[in-house]
Automatic annotation (TrEMBL):
Protein name: DUF458 domain-containing protein
InterPro entries (UniProt xref): Phage_KVP40_Orf299 (IPR007405)
Pfam family, one: RNaseH_like
Length: 157
């Protein structure tokens, strides 16, 4: 599992987590959130473009992010696409957290951001996808509070 930086560097999971830890240790007195969110875009006749973002947020003072792209064949329904977004986020969350255990990380909160909300076609899916995330014992956020998915990952689709 490789991630890109906004500057074009490619990092494996250990390097990505090492950068997250370095960023957090630069100012250990701050409160941090590590957030994972995914977004996708489907264009007629092309594979679906899935982006997963890993964000380390120094609350009240910016942050850093890393992202990866996966292309999959067509998805026939929006529901299938949203479920796949959540699955990519959960997969990344498990790998990031497993790697974080091997480092001496400062305290942080952890969230999964889902690109669904009360307005639009995805409102009927909120309980289902939030339930998926909670089944893995993660905190879930939806629009308008799911910025890792709806803003960060969205920049790269």
């Amino acid at each position: 599992m490789n991630f890109n930086t906004p500057f074009g560097l490619k990092l494996n999971i250990e390097q990505t987590v090492s950068e997250i830890i370095r960023f957090m240790k630069d100012d250990e007195k701050r409160h941090y959130k590590i957030i994972i969110g995914s977004d996708s875009e489907a264009k007629e006749g092309l594979p679906v473009d899935f982006i997963t973002a890993v964000v380390v947020h120094r609350v009240g003072n910016g942050g850093r992010y890393f992202w990866r792209r996966i292309e999959l064949d067509k998805f026939h329904t929006l529901r299938d696409r949203i479920i796949q977004e959540v699955m990519f986020s959960l997969e990344a969350a498990q790998k990031v957290l497993a790697s974080l255990k091997s480092f001496d990380a400062p305290h942080f909160d952890f969230e999964i951001h889902i690109d669904v909300g009360e307005n639009g076609e995805t409102k009927s899916m909120i309980n289902e996808v939030v339930g998926m995330v909670r089944a893995y014992n993660f905190e879930a956020r939806t629009k308008p509070n799911s910025y890792a998915a709806s803003k960060v990952a969205d920049r790269h689709v």
